[in-house]
Amino acid sequence: MRYLRLVLAVLLMASFSSVYGGNCWSDGGMDGCRVLAEQGDAHAQYTLGRHSFIFGPSEELKWLRRAAEQGHTRAQASVGYWYYMGRGLLENIDHKEAVNWFRKAAEKGHAESQYTLGVMYLNGLGVGFNVVMADMYFRISEVNGHVPMGLARWRGYAENKMTSSQIVEAEKLAREWIQTH
After folding, report:
1. For residue 136, which of 144, 11, 90 has the smallest C-alpha distance?
2. Among 95, 113, 81, CA closest to 181
3. Mean pLDDT confidence for 16-32
């Protein structure tokens, strides 16, 4: 089985190297990418983490987390999703840890993380239920260009639970957040 995964990985990388990580892959394939990642290159760590499905979830999280700890925004969002969804491993679902990583990415302008934080506040996942914070993050995400099909539904749901003063507060918080970030 492991041999089959390796063969699949080699075929995928050979066929789609430009899609699978730019310079990291084209400069030396997986071995070259691993060398750069071990030397501390955050982009190589992120790239390796995004493609370590071949070696298993613990290897994926290891590399994504290393990149995220260095401030790589997409890695921070990926680690957030990893803990939010468990990446197929229920014992790894940790919504508080997901919020931590999504916040870091959101503060750097990652609109999908902003949206996900809104969903998490609206559902009380990893944070207390807070419709004002949910609506604030939905607004920020929308300003930053992330407008998934569910955004209108989530915002409508949040605003139906809010008073007019809470809506004004969410608007104010969103404006302040955008100005400071």
Report:
1. 144
2. 113
3. 55
